[in-house]
Records
---
Amino acid sequence: MITDLQPSAIWNYFYQITQVPRPSKKEEKILDFLLDFARSHNLEAKQDKVGNLLITKPATPGRENVPTVILQSHVDMVCEKNSDVAHDFDNDPIETIIDGDWVKANGTTLGADNGIGVAAQLALLAADGVAHGRIEALFTVDEETGLTGANSLEKDFLTGNILINLDTEEEGEIYTGCAGGKGTKACFKYKEKDVPKKYTWFRIQVKGLRGGHSGCDIDRKLGNANKILVRFLHTVVRKKYGTVLSEIGGGNLHNAIPREAYALLGVKEKYREDVRVKLNTFLSQVREEYKHTDPGLDIQLESVHIPSKVISKKTVGKLISALYACPHGVIGMSHEIPGLVETSTNLASVKMVGHRLIEVGTSQRSSVESQKEYAVNMVSSVFELAGAKVTHNDGYPGWQPNPDSDILKVAQREYEALFGKSAKVKAIHAGLECGLFLEKYPHLDMISIGPDVTDVHSPDEKMKISSVGKFWDFLIKILENL
């Protein structure tokens, strides 16, 4: 049981959090849990209009003149599972597994992003033996699907001038900047046609990919199920086989690299075996391409019943061409910070929604605002040329590093004192809420820290046990030595 792990305070709260369902936009249960916690510990709590929660703990005796520190994390989690796992994220708890020095979940996302941050906040709010100034524990909502909580945070909700974000995933690294992002959506309307006669029908499914975070993992050259599926469809839709399409889908969330994708396609009966042979050849090729990053890659072809209708060939041709041409991956690296991805785009999802509508979801990120817009316009142009209706969300700003940050200097000093080595100061290609906080509170002095969490936004998500204790000790030292 993870409740047997040390430090027990943070692990006990993390376990409790895993028992509370908390999908994005459905955070009522976890917010009720946090309000109950505040009441049981006689702590002041308040919520704003969108649901963000602030729990305040007074300074310990003798520390009343120490600056107020805002500790911040988000309460929602990415809900991804393997296709063969039965799990209801609206109602079921996360089943945790200890594997050596790692904690993971049984076929689902673990929710360490950002449940471990929430657990650290609760452990500090409940702690008796930690010296600190006044603490404002900020719990934001809907970070994963829209940054709604940070975007709607009221200007007079916080009083502190120092903010420690607890949403990064590498122990020993202090983050002082992040990329901004924007979502681009393309919608294809289509006409339904009658199913042609003397056709064989298949369900083709790409599966076994690792997936990952569309920011942190975009430079790992992981397989994108949508791109792999479309590469094969492109070879059969435009050839002699008379291929028709009834369904297509892949991916789920804008900030996750898609792990699975499928299509229902029909081919003339006389070409049945030709298509099987072509798929086997293609599978052999892509397995060789992704043998280092996605060794579990598989593409399955199985016979299915004849569908009731098919998508018009005109729409299928435009859709497949647009998906094929749509960029995915790293567009440019930073010249200012070695090794940092500057600009990227993720072909995140393909969904049949509503009536005769196919929706393609993508997301673009960059630490340079003009490059973010360049990536957005590049992706938009591909789909506009194919006749799709393109829309965008409001996006969110990046967080520019501040090398003169006082809280950064304290964190660097305390990390070296604790562990005898320097912490790495970095920026991250993922989106953090810090940029949005600065729009409302431009005076904030901020850093972001966390333990080791890998493969976030996928069922392979796991957290390194030994790093949690170091993260906890580091956070306490920062608060004790401000």
Note: The radius of gyration is 24 Å.
---
Amino acid sequence: MSAMDNQNLPPIPAKRYFTIGEVSELCEVKPHVLRYWEQEFTQLSPMKRRGNRRYYQHHEVLLIRRIRHLLYEEGFTISGARNRLGGTGPVEVHPEAAVRLSGAELQGIRKDLLHVKNVLDQALAG
């Protein structure tokens, strides 16, 4: 997550524990979304006390911000974000390094790859 993303969110106070309401405000995510993310991301498991009240630690607030960034800013699916956080996702690419191709360019690449495949199939068959 870049520093620019953090500038849009409130600073995290120097506290040991945060309620779900506080985390919701700090990360600009509704409480029901936080509860859903707990089910989807095993790394996110706040401590639960009396009455099933959730208490998040500082590192979990940072993790939620990372999840939020992956889903809302980078456009990952839940599964893709889960893989990225688990270390099994693709190597991180910065947006300025990304290459955007048109549909025609992608079709050209596909055509070239199919040609290479056919050449290799013929070479292996013959």
Note: The CA atoms of residues 16 and 57 lie 6 Å apart.
